Amino acid sequence: MGGFAGLPGSTAAMPAEVSYYKRMLDDIRARIASGEWPPGRRIPPTRDLLAMYGESFGVRSASTVRRVVEVLIETGELRGHQGVGVYVAGDATE
Amino acid sequence: MGGFAGLPGSTAAMPAEVSYYKRMLDDIRARIASGEWPPGRRIPPTRDLLAMYGESFGVRSASTVRRVVEVLIETGELRGHQGVGVYVAGDATE
DNA sequence: CTGGATTTGTACGTATGTATT
DNA sequence: CAATACATACGTACAAATCCA
Question: CB of residue B50 closer than 7 A to nucleic acid strand D?
């Protein structure tokens, strides 16, 4: 099945590929750091993140997106609320 | 496929089950905190962790074990070295 | 030096449970 | 009750690095 073989979505001669995982992790962290997604803001649901990173990076699996979000929840950078959404941490109303 | 439905490996009437994920996370952290796995020590490979947590908790999937290790690597508690092993962080020789 | 075994790393897939709206 | 969305678990495939006979 899967594998990622040089990372699909990028052209042939591209050395030192960065994984989807790390790219998404960095991207979300950058959006938080830049203030685009401020503390307390709800981030897009998994489905929308998949659409986003599907276009920009070529990610095809929701489970890959989810693993990134899970890690950011564990590190305390995000907060998940089942049935509701995932929020940027650091807000006063926590 | 899977699902976990009340967590297999535990008897019927057991409320507020804790997930395999959290139990493994806590267990590894406890081993580190207790000094059983001191800084610099290599932890058992995924295969062995699966055998361990398969017996104690009923975990059946290597991918579940891996996710826990990935999180602990991201939090900086462990350090992974591809082809070699995963080590407890905090050692001088890092 | 070479090739197999070991082990971590990454990606995708699927099923199901639980909480909220 | 249905739809939405997060949470957890298991499974599969392959890549990459290291080790060792």
Answer: no
Q: Which residue of A has its CA nearest to B69?
A: A71
Give protein residues whose Cβ lies within 7 A of nucleic acid chain C.
Answer: A 1-4, 7-8, 19-22, 58-64, 81-84; B 1-6, 43-47, 63, 66, 69-70, 73, 80-86
Q: What is the pLDDT of residue A15?
A: 39
Per-residue pLDDT of B41-70, as tens digits, reads 999 999 999 999 999 999 999 999 999 999
Q: Is residue A19 scored above 70 in pLDDT?
A: yes
> Where does A35-84 have alpha helices with state H?
46-56, 62-74
Which residues in chain A have their CB less than 8 angstroms from residue B71's CB? 70-71, 74
Q: At A87, is the pLDDT very low, low, confident or very high (cuts 50, 70, 90)?
A: very high
pLDDT in tens, A24-70: 999 999 999 999 999 999 999 999 999 999 999 999 999 999 999 99
What pLDDT does residue B17 have?
80
